[in-house]
Amino acid sequence: MLFNSIEFLIFFPSVCLLYYLIPHRFRCVFLLLCSYFFYMCWNPKYALLLLTSTVITYVTGLLMDSADRIEEEAGRTRRKKLYVALAFVSNLGILFFFKYYTFAADTIVRLLQTVGIQARIPAFDVVLPVGISFYTFKVLSYTMDVYRKDICAEKNFLKYALYVSFFPQIAAGPIERSKNLLTQMNEKHKFEFEKVRSGLLLMLYGYFQKVVLSEYLAIAVNSVYDSYKDRTGFQLLLATILFAFQIYCDFDSYSNIAIGAAQVMGFRTMENFNTPYFAESVADFWRRWHISLSGWFRDYLYIPLGGNRKGEFRRQLNLMIVFFVSGLWHGASWHFVIWGCINGAWQIIGRWLKPAKKKIKKLFCVDETVFSHKLLRMLITFGLVDFSWIFFRADFRQGIAIIKKIIGVGSGWLTWGGNLKAMGLTYDTLLVLIVSMVILFAADLCRYKEICLRDMICRQGLWLRWLIYLFGIFGILIFGVYGPGYDASAFIYFQF
Amino acid sequence: MQKNIRRIAGILFFWIAAFAVFRAANDVLRFKVVDKADMIHSFYDIEENSLDILCIGSSHAYHSVQPDLLWGEYGIPSYVLGSPGQTVPCSYYLLKEALKYQKPKLVLLETYCFPRKYKFKNDSYLRQAIDGMRFGDVKIEALNDLLPEYSWKEKLSYYIPFLMYHSRWDELENYDFIQHAWLKGGVLDFRTVPQTEPDFPQKPLKIPKMNRKYLKKIIRLCRKNGIQLIFFAAPFADTDTAREALRVNLFVEKYAAKRDIPFLFYQKTKELGIDYETDFYDDHHLNTCGTEKLTVNLAEWLLQNYELADHRQEERYRSWDEDYERYMERREELIAEDARD
Fold first, then answer.
1. How many angstroms separate the CA atoms of A459 and A436, rounded?
2. Is the pLDDT of residue B113 over 80?
3. What is the ipTM metric for this complex?
4. What is the pLDDT of residues A216-262, one digit of tens each?
5. Does any CB of chain B come closer than 8 Å to the CB of residue A74?
6. Mean pLDDT in chain A?
7. For position B265, which CATH number holds?
8. Is B202 part of any domain?
9. Which of A350, A455, B125, B265 has CB atoms 3.0–4.6 Å from B85's, for a disulfide?
10. Within an 8 Å CB–CB cutoff, is residue A192 touching chain B?
11. Do A473 and B14 touch (CB under 8 A)?
12. How far apart are the C-alpha atoms of B327 and B339, rounded to whole Å?
């Protein structure tokens, strides 16, 4: 059940209504059933995998809790490590089988072929279960938190199962930390008009990002990337820039709908994006992009590897390991790994160039506080990140061909009208796209300046508030890409 | 408590406002048959229980009967509930829907669609027949019957055509904003393409079984509502489908006679005085010259055979006079344009 499907538009209001109508003691079970129903709408069989991961980490959590009562430290640590290993191996094993088996087998066969060995590894035709990467990381974060005693193991299985399967987050995150969400399972959520309204507004904005912005951008990007061989360098450059916004709108929209939906039911969930294209460095970008995943890698991979505590070389190596794994997390394909490694490399190169940058700034007396300097940093960061997106969108060979074409830009710069048509856009759709991009920019700018746009809207007089709501709703209904003949494209991040 | 009541009232008013905006947006964006009378949708603009005659059928129906002329010359209020390629099953459901709002004395069913063996030719034709229909029991029944393989989700855009037509925002024209049902389902078009008269066949062709089933339903529906059903066959030029239609019309003669249904077989009686050089819009349809000939002849026949009152002096039909005036004005304009060309 996609957020931009008619089923969800029926499911969500019904769930909310019943959620507030039923007594508090039944709400957990009710939401759990709803969450499993939501998940099973994709493929009922995969609910078993979800349940398996839930049971394993629930039990290992309890076992770790009981191990904590062992007085002998060595024995306690040994036991706890065993349970953590059990949780990690089983969950990552499931993830590996469903997501990486074919990729790994293919890689091994190719490697063996290069040394002249013909090998055959049995193939399994499995469909990637929706959200497996998200909920696997969610349960592992819980396991680590219990291991580190950051939280106590949850005794109530139903509450823990709800934390894992919570329907707004199950398919594409945010990868919520147990410290935040699990504790809220005991809270009694009263219907609070302001919170519900604010959540709905966030959902509305999410729908605008997905149904209008992301879909129009997808038309242009897909039309160019799907036939990149016949495209001019300018078209490819433009499509690459647009893809940066497409993937942002697509993923941020899902996060906003998820956060908004949770808020409508009274849950506070973590934010997943914070104006990533206002970042002034690639490292800064990763603090603003997919925050829940970056935070996961920081807390459960980068820091355990030694983080930046073991010298510059280890720091850079750790960074590359994290981005290598991050690339793999995004997809079982080498182009995702390359994408991840490019992002790691930008940060390492950035550190190498730090002394040189310092000297240049000193030489030219650069004032780092002025807008022009910040803007330049933002543009350079965007360029670097966008370069890496090429390998996210296209495979390695295609990516190289696209870069070659972009660098060798020679023709096509002055044929704007032709480009527009070639990109599947008309002047009308371009106008809608420009207006939508302006709205996106304005909303992000407010967020960057720490102005809460939703609060600002809610403080306005009735007529303006209603006008904004109606513009929002009908803007989406009229200009949105949906309906018969439209293949309700899944959110890009669903494949992860 | 008072705060809660205020909020509930606020939410209620907001959704009423949203619904009003939705209706307005829906009206502008919905698909309209350009230069035609927006037949199905405009039907609901007619005052309830004000029609004496309802005409249903395919494009042959709305290219044959001109309601404004029937009103202006004879004071007979009528409407053509036609749609391109309308099949007998679609006609049945449109009639059933229409009878929820009108109690006509006579129903005229054009026979050109009788030979068709399908419930609808393609999605476009089905949509032109069904999309304009209001959501309700008849629409649900019609779609369940016409699209039995479709899931509720696939049928949703037929119930809420906005889902289909919202993307028309970049192709809107002036006529999308200014709508008036002044043609009452009829067509005003003097374009002329000379045609040849088809040879008259000897051998009748049976109406397909499926259509006979739906014709039975139409007959039953009319009898139940005390309505006189009349079949009529508009003239057409010499084409393969026309020859097939003529053969079926030969069968319709017997079929109708058996059931006491009058059948106006104009191509056989030749009473209209149709000129194949000047009275055709294309190889299938009459232009307004032909339509007016047929309408006048039809009116005379109806007045001779049925008790139809002249409503022209009645207050409730005031707008019909205005529509007739508009029809005449536009008619003159088109004739003048033709003369200039």
1. 23
2. yes
3. 0.81
4. 999 999 998 998 888 888 888 999 999 999 999 999 999 999 999 99
5. no
6. 89
7. 3.40.50.1110
8. yes
9. B125
10. no
11. no
12. 18
Q: Do B17 and A470 touch (CB under 8 A)?
A: yes
- Find the mean pLDDT for residues B298-322: 93
Query: Which residues does A170 contact at the CB level (< 8 Å), separation at least 6?
Result: A35, A38, A39, A50, A130, A131, A134, A135
Say if the Cβ atoms of A474 and B169 lie within 8 Å.
no
Kindly state the tokens that stand for B280.
Answer: 């055709």
The whole-model pTM stands at: 0.87
SS3 B228: strand
Q: Residue A291 has which token pair?
A: 């925050």
**Which residues of chain B approach chain A closer than 8 Å at the C-beta?**
7, 10, 14, 17-18, 21-22, 25, 29, 153-154, 156-157, 162-164, 166-167, 169-170
How does pLDDT run across B173-216, given as a tens digit for each residue? 887 887 667 889 998 888 889 888 888 888 889 999 999 999 99
Taking contacts as CB-CB distances below 8 angstroms, the residues of chain A near B17 are: 466, 470
pLDDT of residue B197: 85
Q: What is the pLDDT of residue A414?
A: 46
Residues of B whose CB is below 8 A from A473: 18
* CA–CA distance, A493 with A173 (Å, rounded to integer): 9
* Residue A474 touches chain B, beta carbons under 8 Å: yes
For residue A314, pLDDT beyond 60: yes
Q: Is residue B302 over pLDDT 50?
A: yes
Catalytic machinery residues of A: 330
* Strand segments (E) across chain B: 53-57, 78-82, 106-110, 228-233, 263-265
Pure H helices in A41-154:
46-67, 73-95, 101-114, 132-147
pLDDT at residue A358 tops 70: yes
Q: Helix (H) and strand (E) counts for chain A? A: 23, 0
A132-147 vs A46-67: helix crossing angle, rounded to 10: 10
- Domain range for residue B274? 36-120+180-340
Give the residue from A121, A125, A141, A132 showing the smallest Cα distance to A96.
A132
Domain count, chain B: 1
Asked whether the beta carbons of A254 and A491 are under 8 A apart, the reply is yes
Asked, for residue B19, whether it belongs to a domain, the answer is no
Asked whether residue B34 carries a pLDDT value surpassing 80, the answer given is no
Q: How many CB atoms lie within 10 A of CB B8?
A: 10
By the 8 A CB rule, do A228 and A398 touch?
Answer: yes
The answer, for A461 touching chain B at a CB cutoff of 8 Å, is no
Q: For residue B230, is it within any domain? A: yes
- Residues from chain A that touch B163, judged by Cβ atoms under 8 A, are 482-484
Residue B168: C-alpha distances to residues A479, B2, B30, B336 (Å): 9, 44, 8, 33
Distance CA A282, CA A381 (A): 6
Q: Which residues make beta-bridge pairs with B232?
A: B110, B264
State the best of B163, B166, B168, B171 to mutate against chain A, taking most chain A CBs within 10 Å.
B166
Using 50, 70 and 90 to split pLDDT, how confident is the model at B171?
A: confident
Do the chains contact at A466 and B21, CB–CB below 8 Å?
A: no
Residue B14 lies in a domain: no
Largest CA distance in chain A: 77
Distance from CA of B5 to the nearest CA of A (A): 12
Residue A344 has a pLDDT of 94
pLDDT tens-place string over residues A426-475: 888 889 999 999 999 999 999 999 999 999 998 998 899 999 999 999 99
User: Using CB atoms, which residue from A193, A469, A478 is nearest to B169?
Assistant: A478
Which residues in chain B are closer than 8 Å to A480, comparing Cβ atoms?
166
Pairwise pLDDT comparison (B296 vs B270), residue with the higher score: B296
**Mean pLDDT on A61-84:** 86
